[in-house]
């Protein structure tokens, strides 16, 4: 089982994935080796180093979990650079070395992973932010010329897990981050309705520039995430 030997990812992230290699050998060559659950398709789990049926829902058909996961797509824009959308699957385009087509492409606001490369909020909602990689952070600078209660909303959540919204004071001329002014990690309320299922935080501010940071706080192994991309919209008012 060369695939098992070459399996990547930190075993510390997924202790349940560590199994004796002899077990894998005994179970036959058709089983799919894994280090974490991301190495397996949905409706499968990584158990004793191999992908096996598990999780919520009806069990998948025989052999389902022995197939590698793929990133689904409807257009090439949903695939990473070097990959095309073929039969609704992100597929390497023949370049060398082959790209990792399991990964999502960056959104239009990248690279915005630090306050010095933040996007600017120009008064209209920013649509289609994504966490294209596990642990992604998105920075946005917003300005006001009045004293006001400033509110930040992260809404229209699609495929998102836990996230955090922070608002900082900001010295724009020197691009220096100031104090953390407000923060939230919980949705407005718990019902799965548009009025509840959003993150909102507010703070009284003086005229100036403020830095917003939205952080993906899922505990997800990086590098092989084929699942639908977490996506959100952001507005400030
Ligand atoms: Ca980002």
Describe the structure in your own words.
The chain contains two helices and 13 strands, in the order ααβββββββββββββ. The chain is mainly beta and 237 residues long. The relative contact order is 0.16. Strands 5-7-12-9-10 form a five-stranded mixed sheet, with no helix packed on it. Strands 6-13-8-11 form a four-stranded antiparallel sheet, with no helix packed on it. Strands 1-2 form a two-stranded antiparallel sheet. Residues 1-28 have low confidence and may be disordered. A hairpin with a 4-residue loop joins strand 9 and strand 10 (176-184). Bound molecules: calcium ion. Calcium ion is lined by residues 110, 112-113, 136-138.
Key terms for this structure?
237 residues, mainly beta, Jelly Rolls, 3 domains, 5-stranded mixed β-sheet, 4-stranded antiparallel β-sheet, 2 helices, 13 strands, elongated, disordered N terminus, binds calcium ion
Rg over CA atoms = 21 Å
**Rounded mean pLDDT score:** 88
Query: Structural class per helix/strand content?
Result: mainly beta
Q: What is the second-level CATH architecture of the largest domain?
A: Sandwich
**Strand order across the largest sheet:** 5-7-12-9-10
Assign a percent range to the helix content: under 10%
Unreliable residue stretches: 1-28
Q: Which cofactor or ligand species appear?
A: calcium ion
- Quaternary arrangement of the chains shown? single chain
Number of helices: 2
- Element order: H for helix, E for strand: HHEEEEEEEEEEEEE
Largest sheet: 5 strands, mixed
Shape: elongated
**Number of DSSP-assigned strands:** 13
Q: Indicate the CATH topology of the largest domain.
A: Jelly Rolls
Q: Give the termini separation.
A: 56 Å
Percent range for β-strand residues: 25-35%
For the record, the CATH class of the largest domain is Mainly Beta
Count of discrete domains: 3
